[in-house]
């Protein structure tokens, strides 16, 4: 093993990756988390195809925001270029998560936004969770993972949303990506997304015509937790 410089982000990426199986968001080698050091212009990411049971901080691969490997002995996640594109264009994110969690992925495969049906969803954000349209064949045949980054960014841009308005997206035909100021926040967002996706699925199973949550309740629930006059928690 070569000498390692980026111990802080290696540890952060390792800890965040290990949260995915613990939270039931992945099995086997599904998914990946990265942790950025914005000052150094690099991020640490899970090595490709390594089971979570075999991971260690030393195995994390450090790459720059163009996806070039800076440090590490293993091949980085196959999704590395998607992470790199997002870090490069979104200045304030410190962590990115990709899972194939069951319910969020089912919505992505169905190519549907997740409607905001209830207050659980509104406690976290006020918007339907966007689903990016499937990628055209010529982009799939080209630099697929790099283009996935743009597929995510374009989906937010088309809806006039920034990466700070919403920290989660479904990639049509594929699966969810989430992000946040830290890797831990990005993992939290993945767990919240999976819960919201499951509840929305069950809501439509019980009532196919379930109404979207009314605006007054969206505003009330979001603001009591995140607004200037928040009274949630201690
Ligand atoms: O999207 C996929 C597979 O469709 C990947 O995210 C795998 O779930 C994990 O790949 P590695 O990070 O192990 O390369």
Task: Give a description of the structure.
The chain is an alpha+beta fold. It has one domain (7-226): Class II aldolase/adducin N-terminal domain (L-fuculose-1-phosphate Aldolase, 3-Layer(aba) Sandwich). Helices cover 40% and strands 14% of the residues. It contains eight helices and eight strands; from the N terminus they run αββββαβααβααββαα. The chain has an eight-stranded mixed β-sheet with strand order 4-3-2-1-5-8-7-6, with helices on both faces. A hairpin with a 4-residue loop joins β3 (61-64) and β4 (69-71). α3 crosses α7. The termini are far apart. Residues 29-32, 46, 48-49, 77-79, 98, 100 line the site of 5-O-phosphono-D-xylulose.
Please sum up the structure shown.
This protein has helices at 7-22, 80-89, 102-109, 119-122, 137-141, 144-158, 183-206, 215-226, and strands at 32-37, 42-45, 61-64, 69-71, 95-98, 131-132, 168-171, 176-180.
Protein traits:
234 residues, alpha+beta, L-fuculose-1-phosphate Aldolase, 8-stranded mixed β-sheet, 8 helices, 40% helix, 14% strand, binds 5-O-phosphono-D-xylulose, metal-binding, L-ribulose-phosphate 4-epimerase activity, isomerase, Aldolase_II/adducin_N_sf
């Amino acid at each position: 093993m070569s000498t390692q410089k980026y111990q802080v982000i290696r540890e952060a990426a390792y800890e965040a990756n290990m949260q995915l199986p613990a939270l039931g968001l992945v099995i086997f080698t599904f998914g990946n988390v990265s942790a950025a050091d914005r000052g150094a212009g690099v991020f640490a990411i899970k090595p490709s195809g390594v089971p979570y049971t075999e991971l260690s901080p030393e195995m994390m691969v450090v790459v720059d925001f163009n996806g070039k490997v800076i440090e590490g002995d293993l091949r980085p996640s196959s999704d590395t270029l998607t992470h790199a594109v997002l870090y490069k264009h979104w200045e304030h994110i410190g962590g990115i998560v990709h899972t194939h969690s069951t319910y969020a992925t089912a919505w992505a495969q169905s190519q549907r936004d997740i409607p905001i049906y209830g207050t659980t969803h509104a406690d976290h954000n006020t918007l339907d969770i966007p689903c990016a349209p499937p990628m055209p064949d010529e982009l799939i045949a080209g630099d697929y993972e790099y283009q996935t980054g743009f597929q995510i960014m374009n989906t937010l841009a088309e809806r006039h949303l920034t990466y700070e308005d919403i920290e989660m997206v479904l990639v049509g035909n594929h699966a969810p990506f989430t992000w946040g100021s830290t890797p831990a926040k990005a993992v939290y967002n993945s767990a919240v997304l999976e819960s919201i996706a499951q509840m929305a699925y069950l809501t439509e199973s019980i009532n196919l015509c379930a109404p979207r949550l009314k605006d007054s309740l969206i505003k009330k629930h979001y603001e009591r937790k995140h607004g200037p006059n928040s009274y949630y928690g201690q």
